[in-house]
Design a protein that fits this description.
Blueprint lengths: L4 E8 L9 H14 L4 E9 L20 H11 L5 E4 L10 H12 L2 E4 L7 H32 L10 E3 L6 E3 L4 H12 L4 H8 L4 H10 L1 H5 L7 H5 L1
Parallel strand pairs: 1-2, 1-3, 3-4
Antiparallel strand pairs: 5-6
Helix pairs in contact: 2-3, 5-6, 6-7
Length: 238
């Protein structure tokens, strides 16, 4: 059967558990579209993003699948009957929770069929069991991550990406000076003590933006001053 207008969905799950790369999906779905005799092929490229929606994520989480602008375009296009067929490497590329049913309903409204490169369960019971297992596994993964973060905080370890001029020690626990960037940090504080504006400091140094200067002098000020020599003007000024 020939499918004139086809849309493909490309998505890779966040984390290291997803072994199907975005490029592999692009290649496999293009081959499938050719097998279907597609006259046009549109792409919804979600990139590396979560497959979970409001069904399992907080409303404030902007990384939700259903909050993704590309996904919203897909839903609107499906409901409008824009495509004859939706293809993906497998069903989990569309969603890893009950949001799959939302996509399926939109496709039914617009008369769009689903086709997948890999085999997917046809019966609803198997599908629901798979979604439950995936959701529980994801929940456990999130809990482990939260526990790891809490442990670091309890131990007094730094959590998050090191700011400019600092790096983790060899154990990945505490921040130490990044000797390649630290001289720039010191100079930023020195120039500020001399009365230069953020813009002037950026121009004088030449390798750091105005906003980065602001981050050093305000957002992460205490982290830097704690590592400055006691006789530095910025330390004595505080």
């Amino acid at each position: 059967m020939t499918m004139s207008d086809v849309v493909r969905v490309i998505r890779q799950s966040q984390g290291s558990e997803d072994s199907i790369s975005l490029q592999q999906q692009r290649e496999s779905t293009r081959e499938l579209s050719e097998e279907l005799g597609a006259e046009s092929l549109d792409t919804i490229d979600l990139g590396n993003t979560s497959g979970f929606s409001l069904f399992y994520k907080d409303p404030d989480d902007e990384g939700r699948l259903d909050a993704n602008s590309e996904m919203k375009q897909l839903i609107a296009g499906l409901r409008a009957g824009r495509w004859d067929c939706l293809i993906a490497h497998d069903d989990t590329r569309l969603a890893r929770d009950e949001y799959f049913s939302v996509i399926k309903h939109a496709a039914l409204e617009g008369g769009c069929e689903f086709r997948f490169v890999s085999d997917v369960p046809d019966d609803r019971l198997t599908f629901r069991i798979q979604r439950i297992v995936e959701s529980e596994a994801k929940a456990k993964e999130i809990e482990k991550s939260k526990a790891a973060v809490e442990h670091r905080r309890e131990q007094g370890f730094y959590h998050g990406a090191p700011p400019f001029g600092l790096e983790f020690d060899e154990n990945g626990e505490f921040l130490v000076k990044d000797m390649g960037e630290w001289p720039i940090v010191k100079r930023v504080f020195t120039l500020r003590e001399e009365g230069q504006s953020y813009r002037d400091i950026s121009k004088t140094i030449g390798v750091i933006s105005k906003s980065a200067v602001g981050n050093i002098l305000t957002d992460n000020r205490e982290l830097y001053l704690a590592r400055m020599p006691a006789d530095h003007p910025a330390v004595s000024a505080d």
